[in-house]
Design goal:
alpha/beta; Urease, subunit C, domain 1; 24 strands
C-alpha cells in the first residue's frame, strides 16, 4: 500500500455540507495539513482521498464550519468577570464540545476584571492553536451612555478620552480586540484612530445617539454595532436612533441575539429583512450559567460583577433589580432558532455564526468549508442540539458519541 502524503488527512462523509451559499446533500469533506482540500459531491471528494485516510461518518448530520462566539461573558459555570487561565481554558474546552472554534471573552471595564482577564488570555493564547481560538478580549465600555448602560455597573463607565482609553488598553495587556463605544459621547469619534492603531475594532452600542451624530461614522470600516436593538436609541418615525441607522447602513456588521429574550421575534424579523445577511453576526451574550442544566443549583450560587444573579429558563437576571444581564443559550441555539423559527436558509444562518464574524474580525481563510480555508469544522445533529465533532485547523478538539 502506498504511503499517504498526508498522514493527518481525514474524510468526513455522509452528512450535508453547509457552504455559505448552499447545502450539498450527503456530501463529503477532505482535510489535511490544517486545510480543507475538497468539499462537495461525495464521489468526487472520496476519489481525492489519499490511501490510509481516516474516514469519519456524519450520516444524517450537518457538516458546518466551526461556530464563533464573539460576545460571551461566560459558560459552564465560568465567568469572564473572575477569570483565571484555568477558567478560560475550561470555557474553551466546553465551547469546543458545543461546536465553537473561536470565542472572544467579553467583560466590562472594571480595573480588576480587565487585569485578570488580560493576564488569563495572555497565558492561554500561548498554548498551541489557542491564539486564533481567542483573538482577544471584547470590552463593553467604558465609553457608554450612562442611561443605556443596561447591566454594566455605573462604576465601569467614564467619559471618552485618550488617557482613559490608553489606561484600559494597558490594564488588558493590549489584548483588546473589540470595544463598545457610544458614538454620541464627546471625544468618542476622535478615539477611532487610536483604536485602529491599537488593533481594536469599534462597535457602536450602549448608546442614546440621535440620528444626526451618526453620519460621521459612515465609511468607518470595519465597524460593528453591539447587540442590535438592546441598550440603544431605537426605531422611530420622528426620533430615529442607532438601531434605525444600523438597519439602513449596508456596510456595518450588526450583532443580533436570537435567544428570543433579548430581542422580540418581530424585531429579529425586521433585522433579517432590512440587513444584508452577510453583515449580521449572530451572538449569544451568554454568561456563566449557560450550558448548565436547568435546575442546576450551581447556577443560583453565581454572581456577575459581584451582584447575585437569578438564572431562569429564559435568561439570567440581577437578583435585586430584575435587570436582564445575559443569556443561558449559546450561539448554536441561535442558529437553530433562525432556521426553525425564523425560516432563514440553513446556509445563511450558519454563515451568520461563522463566516460573517470571521470577516468582521479579519480572518480571510476562516468561517467556510471551502478549499484552501482552514479546516475548522463542526459536525452537528440536524437540530443543532448536539455536537458530534469539532476540528480546529485540522486537529480534532472534540469527538463525541453519535446521538
Amino acid at each position: 500500500m502506498a504511503t499517504s502524503p498526508h498522514s493527518d488527512a481525514f474524510l468526513i462523509e455522509g452528512g450535508d455540507i453547509v457552504l455559505p451559499d448552499r447545502v450539498i446533500r450527503s456530501g463529503a469533506l477532505l482535510a489535511a495539513e490544517g486545510r480543507i482540500l475538497a468539499s462537495g459531491s461525495a464521489d468526487q471528494v472520496r476519489a481525492a482521498a489519499p490511501a490510509g485516510c481516516r474516514t469519519i461518518s456524519a450520516d444524517g448530520m450537518l457538516i458546518c464550519p466551526a461556530l464563533w462566539e464573539t460576545h460571551i461573558h461566560g459558560c459552564a459555570g465560568e465567568g469572564t468577570d473572575a477569570a483565571s487561565p484555568e477558567a478560560i481554558q475550561r470555557m474553551a474546552s466546553f465551547l469546543a464540545s458545543q461546536g465553537v472554534g473561536v470565542f472572544l471573552p467579553t467583560v466590562v471595564a472594571d480595573d480588576g476584571m480587565l487585569a485578570s482577564l488580560g493576564a488569563a488570555v495572555e497565558k492561554v493564547r500561548k498554548a498551541p492553536g489557542m491564539s486564533d481560538r481567542i483573538p482577544g478580549i471584547y470590552v463593553e465600555g467604558p465609553f457608554v451612555a450612562p442611561a443605556r448602560r443596561g447591566g454594566i455597573p455605573e462604576r465601569c463607565t467614564s467619559p471618552a478620552s485618550i488617557e482613559a482609553f490608553d489606561r484600559v488598553v494597558g490594564l488588558a495587556r493590549k489584548h483588546i480586540r473589540l470595544m463598545t463605544i457610544a458614538p454620541e459621547l464627546p471625544g468618542a469619534y476622535e478615539l477611532l484612530g487610536r483604536m485602529g492603531a491599537a488593533g481594536i475594532l469599534p462597535s457602536l452600542g450602549h448608546s442614546e445617539a440621535p440620528w444626526d451624530v451618526l453620519p460621521r461614522y459612515e465609511g468607518t470600516v470595519p465597524l460593528g454595532v453591539t447587540h442590535l436593538f438592546n441598550c440603544m436609541s431605537g426605531v422611530s418615525h420622528k426620533e430615529p436612533g442607532l438601531a434605525q441607522w444600523a438597519l439602513l447602513n449596508r456596510e456595518v456588521f450588526t450583532e443580533l441575539n436570537c435567544d428570543s429574550i433579548h430581542v422580540h421575534q418581530a424585531a429579529i424579523s425586521l433585522a433579517l429583512r432590512m440587513r444584508p445577511w452577510e453583515k449580521i453576526v449572530l451572538i449569544s451574550d451568554a454568561i456563566a450559567p449557560a450550558g448548565l442544566a436547568p435546575g442546576d443549583p450551581a447556577a443560583e450560587k453565581l454572581s456577575l460583577y459581584g451582584v447575585p444573579i437569578h438564572a431562569r429558563a429564559d435568561g439570567v437576571y440581577y437578583r435585586d433589580s430584575g435587570t436582564l444581564v445575559g443569556s443561558r443559550r449559546l450561539v448554536r441555539d441561535g442558529v437553530a432558532r433562525l432556521v426553525f423559527d425564523a425560516k432563514v436558509p440553513l446556509a445563511w444562518a450558519v454563515a451568520m455564526a461563522s463566516l460573517n464574524p470571521a470577516r468582521f474580525l479579519g480572518y480571510p481563510r476562516k468561517g467556510a468549508l471551502l478549499p484552501g480555508y482552514d479546516a475548522d469544522i463542526a459536525v452537528f445533529s440536524r437540530d443543532f442540539s448536539t455536537c458530534r465533532l469539532l476540528a480546529w485547523e485540522g486537529g480534532i478538539l472534540f469527538e463525541g458519541a453519535r446521538p
